[in-house]
Amino acid sequence: MIKKLHVLLVSLVLSQASLGNGSNTASEGSLVGSVGSAMVVAGGASAIAEVIDASGHMVVASVETAGDLVVLTLNTVIDGVEGSAQVIIEASSMAVASSLLVAGSVVEVTSIMAVGGSLMIGHLLVHAGEVILFIPQHALALGLHSHKL
Amino acid sequence: MKQLRFLAAVLVLALTFVMPAYGAACTSEPPTQTEYLQAVQLGFETTQHLEQTYQEQGDTVALIARIGSLASSKRFQRQLGPYWQYTHAGLVFRDHPSGQWSVVHLLNTCGGQSAIFEQGLMRFSLDKPAVYVNAIVHLKPQLQRALANVVIKQNLAKAMFQNSQYSSISYPYSLDYQNSNEYILMLLAAAMAPESKQPNNREQSMSYFLNSKLKSAFQPELVKVGVFESFGSSFGLGPSNATLKDHTREERRKGKMEFVSVGSLVYWLTQLGQVTHHQEVNLNRKN
Prior knowledge:
The structure holds two protein chains of two kinds.
Chain A: E1 9-14, H1 16-19, H2 31-35, E2 37-42, H3 46-49, E3 55-66, E4 69-78, E5 81-91, E6 106-113, E7 122-127, E8 130-136, E9 146-148
Antiparallel strand pairs in A: 1-6, 2-5, 2-7, 3-4, 3-6, 4-5, 7-8
Chain B: H1 2-18, H2 33-57, E1 61-67, E2 88-93, E3 102-110, E4 113-120, H3 121-124, E5 131-139, H4 141-153, E6 165-166, E7 177-178, H5 180-192, H6 202-210, H7 213-217, E8 221-224, H8 227-234, H9 249-254, E9 256-259, H10 262-271, E10 275-282
Parallel strand pairs in B: 6-7
Antiparallel strand pairs in B: 1-2, 1-5, 2-3, 3-4, 5-10, 8-9
Helix pairs in contact in B: 1-8, 4-5, 5-6
């Protein structure tokens, strides 16, 4: 089912060990905001771009915060090849800076769909420090926006 | 005393489980990873369908519906049209200032409260629907232009809401309460009004609806409400997002309440000749 998607989307799924059981009181109208979203504003998730049609895992090497910015350094093992990536995240909520997104967390990489191209920036859905989903910038046309009038 | 308490508890339980539900509770569990992915996929496939229709026919506005909860076939008496089991409707606009393919709809935020939201298609699918399926109803070009005029150019989306009280089974012909589908009915009525009688708010739109050919073409859905549910509701028992207060004595006596469903909206639009075609985008029905 999922493999039939025709837009680049790489999901970074924290391993079961680091997923935890975060709770959420989001109501229907404000889910994304409550879950916490973070825009990757700089830095190349170049390693992520190369893992399309691949699988592997990443280990969070370090997490640095500076105001609303979080610098995430990832050591990657993709199809057996080691690499690294640094992602700078502008947090839209305090969720990113909370304790679960820490050095040592294992991020499983699952390629869901691929039609080629590169993936540099995107949207991280984060809740209580857990990366729930990574969505590349151009996939945002799918419509994550939500405005209450 | 114990018997009374027991009866009250039974009534509360009965009402909680049988009233048709359209909105979320005040709190809800976050979507699981799988639900996120399904929402992404459904959002994408719905976008694909809409973009294709845009390329082929130039459609920029459509009615969209989802199945928020599974309604019992015994509860809905009329089961109007092919989408009678859909519970929640919105209007989707390609060229919306909030973002391409934005859904404008009314959401029950908590209890009797609701608000108008402009959301992307993935976000629309993130409310943990009962089934990951969207119905897309394509409308005649003139109605599309009129809806874009009402919602985008004249910015009347909120005026058709007027901070109404929410009831999932609101009576279609009064302003006391409003459900999500009745809100869409008001937008559609405003869009179908002639320019000289253009409604500027919910009250005017309702007035136009009631006093034009629009009402005679409309057939509300009927939801069956049991004696105990009706009795309990009169004491304020039951779900906080549904009330029978705005319904007529006749309806209560018969135990059948009229309300605006997705099925009645689509049936109505079809009767008025405003539908060009319709399609389901369903993740569970892949070839």
